[in-house]
DNA sequence: GTGCCTACTTTCCAATGGAGAGTGACCGTC
DNA sequence: GACGGTCACTCTCCATTGGAAAGTAGGCAC
């Protein structure tokens, strides 16, 4: 988190950044992590702290139970969340971000604020595009 | 890009951030933009500047033509890229980021460096998880 | 007993994504 | 003048993914 490597953008024609092995791995990680539900869950866990299964689903909104379980499991496997099972009846399972998860949430924070500040521009662009083409 | 709103994370129990209408719109935008191919294309266009159709495909790697056209069209509609058709034979179409696209690329830059710096931690977490469960 | 609670799991079906072939428009070669 | 090549798609077929809804487990209240 300290010692951020030099920017990876804004230098066209300057050659690749690193060896292709790392490149491929990074792409694989991006593929896993840059998914709608992962981002949304990351956000609610960052905002609400330790949260129960169904509550996460409510806060995310519009997610099916299948995808909720699946995404949470994936995130647990990648070390982004910790799953705590309280052996009570009825069952109680809580999820919270690990340090790693938190750093990722911070990284995504920029995208979030970008989305907030640029919604109008996107909608304008869409309207212009749709108006032009049809 | 100026006047970044206060951080949206790290304050559990502090109540929601804004009105739910904006919340929903932001989620919709995130859903569109936080997609594997969009991120990857954004990255190559940020790094390589104006680029031709097939070249983008090569640089992204592993993307089908269908998804390439589809994602580029979507990005064009959202005002992230500009599509320039040179009326020559054989056809030549170039794509480049708009200012808006560039700001998004910058926002994603944090995720990129996060992925680079944390690959080892993710792999370790996965190994631990898989070892525990099987 | 019958329900109810929660966190899943399973089943079924519709939508998405990938592989690969086809298309159009023209040019250069034979 | 038929033939192949180039490039940016577009179309078709099929496997995988994702959503909706029902089922499961296991004990507790009635």
From TrEMBL, chains A, B:
One of its GO terms (molecular function) is DNA binding. It comes from the Bacteria. Keywords: DNA-binding, Transcription, Transcription regulation. Pfam families: HxlR. The keyword Transcription regulation applies. Residues 19-123 form the HTH hxlR-type domain. PANTHER family: TRANSCRIPTIONAL REGULATOR, MARR FAMILY, TRANSCRIPTIONAL REGULATORY PROTEIN. This is DNA-binding HxlR family transcriptional regulator.
